Amino acid sequence: MKKLMLSLSFFLFLAIGIFVSCKQSDSKKDKESIIKGKVDLLVDETVKPLLEDQIAVFESEYDAQITLQAKSEKELMQKFLKDTSGIAILTRPLSANETKFFEQMKIKPKTTKFATDAIALISNKKDLDTLIAMKDVVAFLKGDLKTKIKGLVFDNPNSSTVRYFTALAGVKEVPKEGVYSFKSNEEVVKFVAENDGIIGVIGVNWLLQPTASIKDYLTNINVLSVQGLNKNSYFAPTQNNLAEGTYPLARDLFIINCQGYSGLGMGFASFLAGDIGQRIILKSGMLPKDIPGRKILIKSRLK
């Protein structure tokens, strides 16, 4: 009889625990809607300035609080796969293995493309050559030190820019000689501005919307025009060249929503892809997915 009572007590305790857990989950959903509540947003560090602007406008319009967590791509994905009910901004869609992981967790990720970004290559003002060919960059990454490139500087060894360039060069990792990594895009700008002969690899968003700490350094750098593989012409990372598809180091931006319910993830994704979000991207100098229209009002002359 005593064993029976203990078993019943255990199952009653377990049932109460499950009930309380479900109530807490339901409570979170009740407190959050597509335009209300609190949520964390994981952001690829290379596009942090753009998302700071988007969040500021979104929060000014709605009763929402979005906490931005900027990380390198690898660090971001580690956290995203651990906290599977989150929201993330990536410079690529989820891989097949990542998608499969979420599906095994009974989560269907919702992916929304909202902009096209560019990876910029920068050099010191003392370096007069403002042109660079991707064939030389690829050769350098494959270990050929006879190119005119003396060194490459990345923002972070785990960043999306490193992943992009290693995939482009067809190598598993960057060479140990002549390649340097820091912890942020800001450090790349400062290092290149103070050292000639080095090529910096940076998200163009940091040049278009610089922070106060690097604004003065921009006067000491060149933004290079890039010749694509098997191409003859050089193109700068401008909005027009992104629109025409001529800049060779372009990449799309995505918001990945794994909340699984109608929360702020859905609302913010709609905002980014909507008219206001697209206008913020257009104003930033990057390329929005959909170019916002312009209304022209024609007024008759007053007599």
From TrEMBL:
Domain of life, source organism: Bacteria
Domain PBP, residue spans: 39-274
Keyword Signal tagged: yes
Designated name of the protein: Substrate-binding domain-containing protein
This protein's record includes keyword Signal: yes
SUPFAM superfamilies reported for this sequence: Periplasmic binding protein-like II
InterPro entries associated with the record: PBP_domain, Phosphate_ABC_transporter
Keywords linked to the UniProt accession: Signal
PROSITE patterns for this protein: PROKAR_LIPOPROTEIN
